[in-house]
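Contributing new records

If you add data, match the layout below exactly. Sequence lines come first and carry their own label; structure lines follow with theirs. Keep one chain per record. Anything else will be rejected by the validation script.
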Amino acid sequence: MTPQVLVLIAGVLLAAPALAQADLAAAPAGLTLQVTTDPSSIACRRIEKLDPASSAFLPLHRTFHDGFDTHPLSTGRWVPHYAGGAAWPEARYWGGDGSDFKRKTSANGEQQIYVDPRYGGRSTTPLGLDPFKVRNGVLSIVARRTPAELKPVLFNNEYISGILTTQGTFSQKYGYFELRSKIPVGIGVWPAFWLLADDGGWPPEVDVMEGRGQRPGDLVMTTHWRIPTGRIESCGFDFALPDAATEFHDYGVLWMQDRIIYYIDRKPVSDIKVPIGFNDPMYMIVNLAMGSKDFGGVGFVDGQSPATVAFEIDRISVYQIDAVPMGEKDAR
């Protein structure tokens, strides 16, 4: 941690008797988060009880906010598919033969295709399929079984669903990224909110929240990175939140120069020393996948999978640390 940030934290620790976040439903212009200050370790750790002597309060200011009062594709902030990048694997990684690329990640064994009103699949004209529904300030990303008559047009994917990314529209180095949502459940249901590097490389990857559809109330927060030998390393934890499917909660990550801290309802629950490779700004992805061959607790869709399932999102907000380290850009 830089001397400037340490001085800032010490001052705020004396000046802030409580966190400025009593109303979790709000995304204020300024936010104060409790952070860990003891020496961090590359081995991530679960924070069962935070020692006040090893913590402080860090002020941040808001740099991005979407409360979803309008359709997400009407604002120009979101793109309804992966944008890829020069550093990504070859195009077939994005969906396999006949998926029109960028519309699923077949390497995961996913069984949905991401659509939007302008997407036509094999058709030469848009199909008008819209997985994004907005009502009373809540965005629902809706996955549903592909209509039989559209299966040939949509490359025989079992489900149609939605994804939103800010690649090319917003990215940020350091700061706090937060989703307020309910976590849907069901066999094959895989909701996620995550971050990728703006340069198109992988990893690094920060999984702020992933739901295990077959395990209601079970969510995962994970950091992924690549070591010099080329091997991918991951470290994270499962957390139990019994009402996650029925009540809105905040899921966030704070990326600092020296550590990454994960939060549930703005309380720190785990942290890790920033691994190598976290050098570029990161952009956000929020999606509802269906089916997985490797991610435990999701499984492949079957006859018991829901015909329709919704990932309800109240808001997505991003904050930057008030004292941006010298020479670093705030946001793009």
